[in-house]
Amino acid sequence: QKEVEQNSGPLSVPEGAIASLNCTYSDRGSQSFFWYRQYSGKSPELIMFIYSNGDKEDGRFTAQLNKASQYVSLLIRDSQPSDSATYLCAVRVTGSARQLTFGSGTQLTVLP
Amino acid sequence: EAGVTQSPTHLIKTRGQQATLRCSPISGHTSVYWYQQALGLGLQFLLWYDEGEERNRGNFPPRFSGRQFPNYSSELNVNALELEDSALYLCASQAGADTQYFGPGTRLTVL
């Protein structure tokens, strides 16, 4: 079982719709959760991070965390064609190992 | 505030050669992480440096090595290059236990 799993997609949504991206993780010791966006040929850019159970909103983006279910999601409201990218879920386990463990990413296409 | 910088942008080498990649973190960040992103694969953790010391390494052979300088910049060395080393190499910097910010990456091609 992979440590961080994402639906690879591709996921297509029409412009203006809500895009829902999901991620599950295997290590119950995971404490910090991150969503990065990566355009083709570019490096990942941080969208949001979440540490506590519940929802965290930032503009059109909402991150949701459920540690009991080991599940984290990203909602993108009013999706725009410019949101078309690969979205990477990353997890960090608290402790001496501070590196991030990434999922394989979900490719999102927003159709005009 | 300047972001993470990496050089070179592209690097072409042949099998058996050595490659050296460089990274400068965001000012004030003492931790540097190196990741490999091979085509079609996710980001794989390579190395973590903090305060000049190697703190952790991923599941990569010893021919992947590096160092961190007193100014917190870092160098990744890949010896005896193999075709499968062709990938985007990403450096990320972090302040304390905060979030990681990535540089633009170095595209390494091994022929």
- Our measurement of the CA-to-CA distance between the termini of chain A, rounded to an integer number of angstroms, reads 36 Å
Order of helices and strands of chain B: EEEEEEEEEEE
Overall number of strands of chain B: 11
**Radius of gyration of chain A over alpha carbons?**
13 Å
Task: Classify the helix fraction of chain B into a percent range.
Answer: under 10%
Assembly state of the chains shown: heterodimer
Keywords, separated by commas or semicolons:
A: 112 residues, six-stranded mixed β-sheet, 0% helix, B: 111 residues, mainly beta, seven-stranded mixed β-sheet, four-stranded antiparallel β-sheet
Topology summary:
The complex is a heterodimer of chains A (112) and B (111).
Chain A: E1 4-6, E2 11-14, E3 19-25, E4 30-38, E5 45-50, E6 54-58, E7 61-66, E8 71-76, E9 85-93, E10 101-102, E11 106-111
Parallel strand pairs in A: 2-11
Antiparallel strand pairs in A: 1-3, 3-8, 4-5, 4-9, 6-7, 7-8, 9-10, 9-11
Chain B: E1 5-7, E2 10-13, E3 19-24, E4 31-37, E5 43-50, E6 53-57, E7 64-68, E8 74-78, E9 87-94, E10 100-102, E11 106-110
What do you see in this structure?
The complex is a heterodimer of chains A (112) and B (111). Chain A is an all-beta fold and 112 residues long. Helix content of chain A is 0%, strand content 56%. Chain A is built from no helices and eleven strands. In chain A, the strands form two sheets. In chain A, strands 2, 4, 5, 9, 10 and 11 form a six-stranded mixed sheet that branches. In chain A, strands 1-3-8-7-6 form a five-stranded antiparallel sheet, with no helix packed on it. By secondary structure, chain B is mainly β. Chain B is built from no helices and eleven strands. Chain B has strands spanning 5-7, 10-13, 19-24, 31-37, 43-50, 53-57, 64-68, 74-78, 87-94, 100-102, 106-110. In chain B, strands 2, 4, 5, 6, 9, 10 and 11 form a seven-stranded mixed sheet that branches. Chain B starts with a strand and ends with a strand. Chains A and B meet through strand 5 and strand 10 of A and strand 4, strand 5, strand 9 and strand 10 of B.
